Amino acid sequence: MSSTLLTGIGELVTNDPDQQTGVLGVRRDAALLLDGDRVAWVGDRAVAPVADHQVDVGGRAVLPGFVDSHAHLVFDGDRAEEFAARMAGVPYSAGGIRTTVAATRAADDRRLAANLRWLLAEMHRSGTTTVEVKSGYGLTVADEARSLRLARQVTEETTFLGAHVVPVEWADDPDGYVELVATTMLRAAAPYARWVDVFCERGAFDADAARRVLTAGAAQGLGLRVHAGQLGPGPGVALACELGAASADHCTYLVDADVAALAGSATVATLLPGAEFSTGSRYPDARRLLDAGVCVALATDCNPGTSYTTSMPFIIALAVREMRMTVAEAVWAATAGGARALRRDDIGVLRPGSRADVLVLDAPSYLHLAYRPGVAQTRAVWQSGRRLDLSVG
Length: 393
Ligand code: NIG
Ligand code: FE
Fold this sequence. Notes:
Elements: E1 3-13, E2 26-35, E3 38-44, E4 53-56, E5 61-64, E6 66-68, H1 80-87, H2 97-106, H3 109-125, E7 128-131, E8 133-134, H4 141-152, E9 158-163, H5 174-189, E10 195-200, H6 207-219, E11 223-228, H7 236-242, E12 247-250, H8 256-263, E13 268-271, H9 273-279, H10 286-291, E14 296-298, H11 312-323, H12 327-334, H13 336-341, E15 358-361, H14 368-371, E16 378-383, E17 386-387
Parallel strand pairs: 1-4, 1-5, 6-7, 8-9, 9-10, 10-11, 11-12, 12-13, 13-14
Antiparallel strand pairs: 1-2, 2-3, 5-15, 15-16, 16-17
Helix pairs in contact: 3-4, 4-5, 5-6, 7-8, 11-12
The chain binds N-(iminomethyl)-L-glutamic acid and fe (iii) ion (FE).
């Protein structure tokens, strides 16, 4: 692979604390050298090294590609009617997941893979270079394993979510379903998964069931993540912190003890305001978490039920407008914060040795991500040093 020097960078967001220029480590009039799949050099344009290729970005802003650390992309069908009904006042319930489970089971591999790649291409077009993908719409041993096998073809960040909801055929024996998830289903899924996740919520799985599945996953060598506090306060956040989960996701309803537990742990609070937008519920209190010293990430939660968006810029705009995050905090949470939630230090940052995942914005400053909501502002994207084709179709 050859080297590429990006020049003419009006504003470079590095997220490198060594830059000592605020939370985003911003540099001006910078250049960035990509060599193979890595960043090789960051510095002043005036002293930039020579490279095989040079790309002048014309004064635009350059950032690490977004790290979308929470998405459900293996499914078939949509739930547009359910969304429309919700906007007319029908409340969201976890049971809607079963609609997508039925459609997903009925779809063949080709169809699921095509939908996955279509969503992934959308993500690239809005600047995402790493995505975590969960199973959770198969809910049989074979369907969960195939969901993860398909996900593994597009990302190394795959998560087994057999404990998404109790499927209809197990409605009379939810404990039996939890046992299946923690044993046979987990063993079939584990070869394709890096993480295990549980929807710990009223209407889904309680603390005992979540503990059973998470500890079984940990024993198989999987890292832990928990859907917690989305629809009401519950035991999910405390459990995530106690078990050393990488992330507690949603965190919309928190009690003081949850905030204290997050602040005293290495568990990231991943906020998913696309879900609040689409369910019409209140937004998470990001300021309460940030002011308590909790590490906050932002992600799309892309799924056909509660958040059918692939756009990290939209999530950033929501976080700034509705959750009182500063633009810098939101951009950090969508890049370095997502990396932290995946326990990665090679992404979400631009410094020598990090992965060459680069977003060139069609704007002079990262501020425009929140300032110009709904506007496509992706000029170019490099993923592992390879420039992506962002054309549609
Ligand atoms: O993260 N909360 C659980 N899972 C998804 C919703 C899935 C669905 O409704 O299909 C979420 O919001
Ligand atoms: Fe989710």
